[in-house]
Amino acid sequence: MQQLTTAGQQLVNDLSNRYGLSQDAVVHMLVAVNNGSGSMAQFNCPELGGSGQWMRGGMTMVGDMFNNGLKNTVDNLCNELANALVNTTVFPVIPAGTPGSSQWWPANLGQPFSSGSQNNLRYAVFPNRLAVEMNGAVTVYDTLNHNIGGVSQQQGGNQSLTFSSQFGTVSVDNLPVVSGNGSQPSKPAPQTNFAQPSQQPTFNAQPDYNTSQPVNSTQTSANSDEIFALLEKLGGLFEAGVLTQDEFNAKKSELLNRI
Fold it and tell me: Which residue of 2, 39, 110, 176 could cross-link 142, Cys pair, CB 3.0 to 4.6 Å?
């Protein structure tokens, strides 16, 4: 069970009672919103229709596309959780530079001028240094003469890391390692949200919504909004009888794979 502060547990109890959800479901959504920095959440919660995505001020997508009541429930719940994360200490504070901390890189690096995340990967760019946390293992690289614009993780069997610079797309493995074991950790991932690492609630594996493009939160948000709009139009065509069930399912899967 995810460790919470007293205020965090009270929040979970209150939301569980008001929304008619189990505490595990509320904690699952709390961690998902926290991982999305309070502005988005990717989740897989059976009590809320399975897999879905929420974007603050944007569209909410759930497994049952036409269940507006469920969409409103997810939207209201996520907004309350996002507000609580801003105003309440929900997770126990973890010292900087330790796994699970919001400042997960070595403290001697100072503050990054660029950072991002994707799947089980987080990165932070500093003057002449690139810090990468992958599956809980932190590695610091010498960036040489590269001006790094983003780091991405290749999908599928090849889990190699790449970054974009003025010279194009380059493998992170080409950079000298300053500290750590490189980009191929041997252990499975512990929890990497802001809370102390602990056992997550038991749900099915969260689907992979990301691609291997460099991490860019603004671009990701814009692309997701476009796809959600297309999904809404697709649903309208299906309801109007323009598309068959098979055509609708095929196009829906194609659009979801682009998120």
Answer: 176
Any idea how long the chain is? 259
According to DSSP, residue 243 is labeled: S
Q: Which domain holds residue 48?
A: 1-91+194-208
User: Using an 8 Å Cβ cutoff, are 11 and 90 in contact?
Assistant: yes
pTM, rounded to two decimals: 0.45
Structural domain contains residue 199 = yes
What is the per-residue DSSP string for 168-224?
EEEEGGGSPEEESS-S---SPP---SSSPP-PPP--PPPP----SSPP-HHHHHHHH
Within 8 A by CB and 6+ apart from 72, the residues are: none
- Asked if 123 contacts 140 with a C-beta cutoff of 8 angstroms, the reply is no
Are 133 and 98 in contact by the 8 Å Cβ rule? The answer is no
Which one, of 130, 241, 234, 227, lies nearest residue 175 by Cα? 130
Q: Assess if residue 100 is contained within a domain.
A: no
| Mean pLDDT (the chain, rounded) | 77
Give the alpha-carbon dihedral of 19, 63, 35, 31, to 10 degrees.
40
Coil, strand or helix at 239: helix
Reported confidence tier of residue 153, pLDDT bands at 50, 70, 90: low
| Same domain membership, residue 113 and residue 52 | no
